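Weekly sync notes, structure subgroup
Attendees: PM, AL, DS (notes)

Item 1: joint prediction request from the bench team. They want all two components modeled as one assembly rather than separately. Inputs as received:
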Amino acid sequence: MENLAWYILDAMLIIALIGLAWLTLTNHNLRQAIIFFIAFGLLLALVWFRLAAPDVALAEAAIGAGLSGALFLTSLSQQKQTNKKDDPLKTTSTKFFDSFQNQFLNLLFVILALVFSAAFVFALMEADPDRLSPTVLMNLEQTGVSNPVTGVLLDFRAYDTMLELAVLLSAALGIMALGPVKTHYYPSGDMLSSLSQWLVPILILFSGYILWAGAHSPGGAFQAGALLAAAGVVLNLTGDRQVKLPNYWLLRGLTIGGIAGFLIIGLLLMLSGRAFLDFPSQWSGTLILFIESFATLSISIILLIAFQSGEPQEWEHESKKLALKNTAGKTKIKGKTLC
Amino acid sequence: MLSTQLIYGIAGIVLFVLSLRVAFSTELFLRQVLAINVAGAGLFLTLLSVAFKGLEQPADPIPQALVLTGIVVAFSATALALALGKKLAENSPDER
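Output from the run, pasted for the record:
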């Protein structure tokens, strides 16, 4: 009986998930499609809870649904209204060749799905169901944290996480290389700005809590960074001109801070005669928290740059000042700091 | 437990293939990026369905860590794609 209830829940979740994905993918109106995408992301967060992965659920709700949705909506509103081309999915093609080609593609993708499914079923039946998880749980004590996901991210697979921060940094560099962006937001009305005055401190506080809690329960650097970035996005959207990103050097420093934290700790460990990023067990928890704090700040700044989709104008202003300083050698930079 | 893994895993594969099909056929840049995002979500679903080990014990932490980093990387890649697309649209008014 209990099993039946779970099956019904699973069926409902999956049908809703695929339905929302279909609506996202085929909707005529791109704005509606994006809103369906946000709903899809939130439902996906529920699915992660169902699959006993609360860490991923937090990240999905904050990034997959929240930040991505905001990013897509901003991108849509900044787009020039030249997209007159209709979606080929909806235009009923009259040419025989086109419809034939479409049907051929459909057939190809159905075969692809069948092949993937067969491979998946086969792999699930044949493989050792435990894989590495008993090893992780057995050695978790050495990491100084009790949340296995944080342990894997920051200790067992610390290389992965460090290189992931490098990927984030290169994405941010790519975006910044495209030049400064104009901010499109104007100061909002009283309602929204007073809401943001409430929301931003709560987001910052909560981000700190999530970072701290990540050691023993769901949470961690990525979720905390996403929340901090969300605070920045809220400020950005309400168009508060008093609030800016930190000044030039601090901002650049924070952008590379995550990977720098990893490298400094790793190199210090090498100097003390251990392997790169091989944490001694008694210090492990502290070192992980140190690295995570830098990673959180770095991730939030990079996500914010990604959301703004370009170098914010304040930077150019600062770098002009910097150029001035270099030539004249007199003027001193005075940047405004965050909040 | 196995049946849960199977249905969620296959749902993930369906999502992946469906959105890949749309990404190939649509000409709207924004929809292509959306479709690739949904395809990524499908992959994550399959990966986490493998990690699921019933409600009595915690799910396998390694796929969870992979998906967690995957979500963040997917977001930054999306942002880079959208920024490039915007620049492309600004510089070539006829195309797209």
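Discussion: Chain A has a mean pLDDT of 82.
Action: AL to compare against the crosslinking data before next sync.
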